[in-house]
């Protein structure tokens, strides 16, 4: 797990696109070093910061769980997914990713993350 101050500095770094070859090498070096210590959720936040929400189709707070669920075009966002599953639903709070075949399916599942995010389901069960 990366400390909060390091996460802030990394997030600001990845938002700035490298302009020279030397900056690119430094940028990649920092990210590779960060990858070893980042949690999945931290890495997902860095990915979103680096891509500037590329491929984002929809982002909404779920009434069912109070967490934020987004729908991405997998290829445009850089999410590695089976090409037959071109859309990915992401629980932004828990960095859970589920890829689906159609945008219709993504829009159907996104509003209630309890059906596809284990952390959301467990939190909901704990609340009773
Ligand atoms: Zn969740």
Characterization of the model:
By secondary structure, this protein is an alpha+beta fold. The chain has two domains: 4-51, no CATH class; 56-127. It has six helices and four strands. It has a four-stranded antiparallel sheet with strand order 1-2-3-4. β1 (56-61) and β2 (68-73) form a beta hairpin. It is globular, with a radius of gyration of 16 Å. Zinc ion binds next to α6.
What strand order characterises the main sheet?
A: 1-2-3-4
| Main sheet attributes: strand count, strand direction, barrel closure | 4 strands, antiparallel
Q: Roughly what percent helix?
A: 40-55%
H and E order: HHHEEHEEHH
Mean pLDDT, all residues: 89
Backbone structural class: alpha+beta
What attributes characterize this protein structure?
alpha+beta; 4 strands; 128 residues; 2 domains; four-stranded antiparallel β-sheet; binds zinc ion
Give a brief rundown of this model.
The chain is α+β, with helices and mostly antiparallel strands and 128 residues long.
Which SSEs are present, and which pair or pack?
Blueprint: H1 4-15, H2 21-37, H3 40-51, E1 56-61, E2 68-73, H4 74-77, E3 87-91, E4 96-100, H5 103-109, H6 118-127
Antiparallel strand pairs: 1-2, 2-3, 3-4
The site of zinc ion has 9 residues, from helix 6.
């Amino acid at each position: 797990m990366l400390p909060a101050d390091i996460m802030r500095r990394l997030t600001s770094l990845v938002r700035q696109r490298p302009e020279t070859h030397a900056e690119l090498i430094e940028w990649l070096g920092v990210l590779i070093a960060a990858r070893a210590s980042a949690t999945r959720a931290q890495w997902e936040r860095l990915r979103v910061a680096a891509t500037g929400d590329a491929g984002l189709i929809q982002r909404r707070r779920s009434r069912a769980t109070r967490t934020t669920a987004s729908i991405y075009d997998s290829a445009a966002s850089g999410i590695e997914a089976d090409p037959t599953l071109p859309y990915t639903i992401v629980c932004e709070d828990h960095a859970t990713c589920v890829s689906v075949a159609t945008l219709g399916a993504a829009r159907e599942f996104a509003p209630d993350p309890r059906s596809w995010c284990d952390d959301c389901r467990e939190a909901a069960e704990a609340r009773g």
